[in-house]
């Protein structure tokens, strides 16, 4: 099941490996922001990539209030339950910590469908995704984690060691397997001349803040405005509560210098990672600044608490959500000596071979009796 451009990008090579494995049959259920024109209608990209879609489950995203999102979760849980009942899968594979994933996990649990969960065990203290991720871990039966520390946390949650697999981050497989967009292709797509300093910015609501992170956004835009002659490319805001206001502020910021600033709802992995490959820094509060950017030895300015708790590579510069500290972080990231001083290998999330490892486990896992779980107590000191 995929619900956003982000989880689809990470799942792409997993889907490819499943589709090409004779022992497995791929059924893809699409929901959430994929079906919304506001968020780029990225179901079109899935179809262009050649993956047949078994079911589309509508998800209303017209209102970004917490009540509206909770009501949409209830509706999509029912829709996913019907889809899973009709498709009768042997295993449901989900990735991450979005509320669509929680809806899918709940439906699968009640229907008795084994759940394989990717990217469990991580922590992100600034968003309600933190609680969702750990809740899904407790509903899951196979755990594909991205680092040893995350495997340990899944074990702390009482899961059996023989069901936890450290495979790395599947999104990094693109760096080994996907032809990335060139500068010329990116400039044509964005209608921008990508001059240095080139900043790639992704800023999502910080859902545990009273203002959903809007104060941090205002500070970030103030700091970005002070970077002389910067080319700034914003990627789309996700569908969390509070996204409308953030989107509107970014759109207004772009209108002041449209010849050097742009926002795109969804770039796709080939264009997004191609853009990171030629960028001078990535800015914001997205997980891509913690996972993909470091693998490209690209400095990250990580703002606020949305990613607090995730493993930090040497290329990640934390900044408080105020303009002064964000300017400090930008100055450090754009100092050539900082990037030149980074180690050759800064990725903490594997080597780009996760998908084959995941599919090998899916192909060989014994599913008889897998729904029966017991809490495994960790030894006390």
Question: Would you write up a description of this structure?
Answer:
With 381 residues, the protein is α/β, with parallel strands linked by helices. It has two domains: 5-168 and 352-364, Rossmann fold; 181-340, Glycogen Phosphorylase B (Rossmann fold, 3-Layer(aba) Sandwich). It is built from 15 helices and twelve strands. It has helices at 5-19, 43-48, 66-87, 99-111, 129-139, 148-156, 173-177, 183-190, 214-225, 243-255, 269-278, 292-295, 323-333, 336-340, 354-364, and strands at residues 28-31, 53-57, 92-95, 115-118, 142-145, 164-166, 198-202, 231-235, 261-264, 281-284, 300-303, 316-319. The chain has a six-stranded parallel β-sheet with strand order 9-8-7-10-11-12, with helices on both faces. Helix 3 (66-87) crosses helix 4 and helix 4 (99-111) runs parallel beside helix 5.
SSE pattern: HEHEHEHEHEHEHHEHEHEHEHEEHHH
| Total DSSP E strands | 12
CATH-level-2 architecture of the largest domain: 3-Layer(aba) Sandwich
For the record, what CATH class of the largest domain applies?
Alpha Beta
| CATH overall fold name of the largest domain | Rossmann fold
Average pLDDT metric: 92
CATH superfamily of the largest domain: Glycogen Phosphorylase B
Strand fraction:
5-15%
Q: Summarize the biggest pleated sheet.
A: 6 strands, parallel
Measured on Cα atoms, how large is the radius of gyration?
20 Å
Structural class of the secondary structure composition?
alpha/beta
Query: What general form does the structure show?
Result: globular
Total domain modules: 2
- Biggest β-sheet: strands ordered side by side in the sheet: 9-8-7-10-11-12
């Amino acid at each position: 099941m995929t619900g956003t451009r982000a989880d689809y990008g990470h799942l792409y090579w997993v889907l490819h490996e499943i589709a090409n494995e004779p022992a497995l049959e791929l059924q893809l259920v699409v929901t959430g922001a994929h079906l919304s024109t506001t968020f780029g209608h990225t179901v079109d990209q899935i179809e262009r990539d050649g993956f047949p879609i078994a079911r589309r489950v509508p998800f209303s995203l017209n209102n970004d209030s917490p009540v509206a999102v909770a009501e949409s979760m209830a509706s999509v849980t029912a829709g996913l339950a019907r889809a899973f009942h009709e498709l009768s899968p042997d295993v449901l594979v989900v990735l991450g910590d979005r509320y669509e994933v929680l809806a899918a996990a709940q439906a699968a649990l009640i229907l008795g469908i084994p759940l394989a969960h990717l990217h469990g065990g991580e922590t992100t203290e600034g968003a309600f995704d933190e609680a969702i991720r750990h809740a899904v871990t407790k509903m899951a039966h196979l755990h594909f984690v991205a680092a040893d520390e995350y495997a340990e946390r899944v074990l702390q949650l009482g899961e059996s060691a023989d069901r936890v697999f450290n495979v790395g981050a599947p999104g990094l497989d693109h760096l080994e397997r996907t032809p990335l967009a060139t500068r010329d292709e990116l400039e044509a797509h964005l209608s921008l001349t990508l001059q240095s300093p080139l900043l790639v910015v992704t800023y999502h609501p910080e859902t545990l803040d009273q203002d959903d992170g809007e104060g941090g956004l205002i500070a970030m835009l103030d700091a970005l405005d002070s970077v002389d002659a910067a080319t700034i490319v914003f990627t789309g805001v996700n569908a969390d509560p509070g996204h409308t206001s953030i989107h509107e502020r970014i759109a207004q910021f772009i209108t002041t210098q449209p010849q050097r600033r742009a926002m795109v709802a969804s770039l796709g992995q080939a264009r997004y990672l191609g853009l990171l490959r030629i960028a001078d820094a990535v800015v914001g509060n997205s997980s891509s600044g913690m996972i993909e950017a470091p693998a490209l030895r690209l400095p990250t300015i990580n703002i606020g608490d949305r990613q607090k708790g995730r493993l930090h590579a040497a290329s990640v510069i934390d900044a408080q959500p105020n303009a002064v500290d964000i300017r400090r972080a930008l100055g450090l990231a754009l100092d050539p000596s900082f990037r030149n001083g980074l180690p050759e290998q800064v990725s903490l999330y594997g080597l780009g071979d996760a998908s084959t490892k995941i599919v090998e486990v899916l192909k060989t896992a014994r599913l008889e009796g897998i729904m029966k779980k017991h809490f495994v107590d960790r030894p006390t000191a």
